[in-house]
Specification:
Layout: E1 17-20, E2 25-28, E3 34-36, H1 52-60, H2 80-83, H3 88-125, H4 130-145, H5 154-168, H6 175-182, H7 186-199, H8 213-219, H9 224-239, H10 248-262, H11 269-276, H12 280-293, H13 297-306
Helix pairs in contact: 3-4, 3-5, 4-5, 5-6, 5-7, 6-7, 9-10, 10-11, 10-12, 11-12
The structure holds zinc ion.
């Protein structure tokens, strides 16, 4: 075991960390991210393939349309006129380089074209805003340039890039939603997401629980009143620091659950858990905390008695 074992999920802040010794896996029970595993990062050995400057240059480059596939190609190695200035052995080298570069760039081009089509498909399935789609494309492109796609499926990198872009734009999607849209297992998306954000040094703040409310509420067909009640509950919870150290999806779902009880629109813990992609146990625990610490028992009782 590692000396400084993970105590908190760096992604959602939850302290509910699960260790599976057999698999050598450390997982966050709240958001489902694999925080550590024995899997080899294939990305590493390919890094020398493209120098790091390439990535930085793209990052500061003009943010025109990132979703067109022919962007971000590497610089060409010389022009044909340079060839005549070279001596015998250098001429061979020149052609070898050109040939090598041609092969690489057509491969990258092909990959980008297919990947961006997939990215658009998943993005429209999830009804993501255009800026999020563009940012995801930018992240994907950087990942390709840094050779981070090696050893991973294109679809999982696309899903990971979209997940990261959603988080950055504060329109977070759950790993379950991303999994359904992309057809990739949520564990794999989380793993890829962690890998590319770490390698590309993309900083992502833990998401705000209330960012999830509108979508969870509409999936559960809850009224606007219940929805605003849940946001109110979340604000009160935040004020007494009840939201820290807990996964944002779990607490958002629990707040909705409480609000649904208060407004007489009861949903089961199972239903709420499914929509949020968390376990019923999480809902139950968060629910108990909210009821107790915010003195909400009387409000829930009041509704029960009305019936
Ligand atoms: Zn987490």
């Amino acid at each position: 075991m590692r000396k400084n074992a993970i105590k908190e999920c760096p992604d959602c802040g939850s302290k509910d960390i699960h260790r599976n010794r057999d698999k050598g896996e450390v997982t966050c029970r709240e958001c489902g991210l694999v925080l550590e595993d024995r899997m080899i990062d294939f990305g590493q050995e390919w890094r020398s393939f493209d120098d790091d400057k390439g990535g930085d240059r793209r990052r500061t480059g003009a943010p025109s349309s990132q979703t067109s596939f022919d962007q971000g190609m590497g610089t060409e190695i010389g022009t044909t006129s340079d060839y005549y200035k070279l001596g015998g052995s250098n001429k061979d080298k020149f052609f070898r380089l050109r040939k090598w570069q041609y092969r690489i760039s057509t491969a990258i081009e092909r990959n980008l074209k297919v990947a961006l089509a997939e990215l658009k498909r998943v993005s429209s399935y999830l009804k993501l805003p255009k800026q999020v789609e563009e940012e995801a494309a930018r992240i994907y492109r950087l990942a390709v340039q840094k050779g981070l796609v090696r050893g991973r499926s294109m679809e999982s990198v696309v899903a990971g890039a979209l997940y990261a872009a959603c988080r950055r734009h504060e329109v977070p999607r759950t790993l379950d939603e991303m999994g359904e849209a992309s057809g990739i297992e949520k564990k794999e998306i989380g793993r890829t997401y962690r890998f590319i954000t770490r390698e590309l040094e993309i900083s992502i703040r833990p998401s705000n629980p209330s960012d999830y409310i509108p979508r969870f509420a509409s999936a559960l067909k809850l009224s606007p009143e219940t929805q605003s009640k849940s946001v109110e509950i979340l604000e009160q919870a935040r004020d007494i620091e009840l939201t820290s150290g807990r996964g944002p999806t779990g607490i958002a779902a629990a707040a909705l659950y409480v609000a649904s009880l208060i407004h007489g629109e009861k949903r089961t813990q199972r239903e709420v858990a499914d929509v949020a992609g968390v376990t019923e146990v999480t809902i139950r625990n968060r629910y108990k905390e909210l009821i107790k610490r915010l003195n909400l028992a009387k409000d829930v009782e009041k509704m029960k008695n009305k019936k």
